[in-house]
Amino acid sequence: MKLIKIGSKYIWLWVAIEPDHRQILHIDISFERSMLIVERFIASLINTYGNHPVSTTDGGTWYLPQACRFLKLKYRLHSSLKRKAPWKDQFNT
């Protein structure tokens, strides 16, 4: 997810990328960044690709855990402030 400016407005660009093949799975935009927006984004991925662990690198540590718990998904937060063990041990439930 990235905040971009279009004209005089700022919008959030959401992109889901498959990690092994680096294929773009889904793109969306929103005017805000919230638990409901990320829940809708992830739910659209579940409808298309099924239930898989979720990982984020955008630094928004407050909304992903809530959305993933609601959707019953494992998740991982990549944060420059928090260093964890290897990738496969990182998923929360």
How is this structure best summarized?
The chain is an alpha+beta fold.
Question: How do the helices and strands line up, and which of them pair or pack?
Answer:
Blueprint: E1 2-6, E2 9-18, E3 23-30, H1 35-49, E4 54-56, H2 64-71, E5 75-77
Parallel strand pairs: 4-5
Antiparallel strand pairs: 1-2, 2-3
Helix pairs in contact: 1-2
Key features of this structure:
two-stranded parallel sheet, three-stranded antiparallel β-sheet, single chain, alpha+beta, 93 residues, 25% helix, 2 helices, disordered C terminus
Protein architecture, described:
The chain is of the alpha+beta class. It contains two helices and five strands, in the order βββαβαβ. The strands form two sheets. The chain has a three-stranded antiparallel sheet with strand order 1-2-3, with helices on one face. The protein has a two-stranded parallel ribbon with strand order 4-5. Helix 1 packs across helix 2 (64-71). The two termini are 22 Å apart.
Distance between the first and last residues' Cα = 22 Å
Mean pLDDT score, rounded? 78
Largest sheet strand order:
1-2-3
- Find the count of extended strands (DSSP E, 2+ residues): 5
Q: What is the percentage of strand-forming residues?
A: 25-35%
Helix content: 10-25%
Whole-angstrom Rg: 13 Å
Q: Detail the poorly predicted runs.
A: 83-91
Number of helices: 2
Overall spatial form: globular
Largest sheet: 3 strands, antiparallel
Order of helices and strands: EEEHEHE
Provide the structure class: alpha+beta
